[in-house]
Amino acid sequence: DLPLADAISSYLFNSMLIRVPGQDRLTLICPTETRDNPRSHAVAQGLAASNGPIGHVEYVDVRQSMRNGGGPACLRLRVVLTEAELAATNPAMRLTDALHARLSDWGRRWYRDSLTAHDLADPALLDETRGALDALTQILNLGGGFYPFQRV
Asked: Cα(121)–Cα(97) distance, rounded to whole angstroms?
């Protein structure tokens, strides 16, 4: 029902499903590009009109965020937590000014501004990448065995 070119240009598969309290069916949150493309709009509306789990479609304009580097992932999952659920989460993963500073330092140290075909052929790139991931898991307090290479 949806040609690949339309699926890509409309960002339909970057949409997000949410459960709205008091509603028995899910809401599909789509970028406005999905609405603006007749084929993807028909697919989204068809999902809501069916007797399936999706009962409603909402469209959100995320163009500005996408132009500023957010990309189609602007419709990230948002989870509302109770105080008890929040207390059970890893506090090292809550964005604070201190964590932002540590992540910014990590990015400056590890994020390359270019990557060539020669770099991809260099086995040292694997060690560099693992070093970056190891440093990131330490910053986020994920434990020393988060990635398989850390468990050896």
From this structure: 37
Radius of gyration over every alpha carbon of the chain, rounded to an integer in angstroms: 20
- H helices of 66-139, in order, are 83-87, 97-110, 117-121, 124-139
Average predicted confidence (pLDDT) for the chain:
89
Domain boundaries, given as residue ranges, for the chain: 4-78, 90-151
**CA separation for the pair 16, 1 (Å, rounded):** 20
d(CA 66, CA 40): 19
Paired strand residues for 29: 16, 58
Residue type, 49: A
Q: List phi, psi (to 5°) of 86.
A: -60, -40
Q: Which tens digit of pLDDT belongs to each residue from 26-82?
A: 999 999 999 999 999 999 999 999 989 999 999 998 877 766 666 655 555 567 789
* pLDDT higher than threshold 60 for residue 127: yes
Phi, psi of 39 (to 5 degrees): -70, -45
| Torsion, Cα of 140, 145, 147, 149 (10° steps) | 130
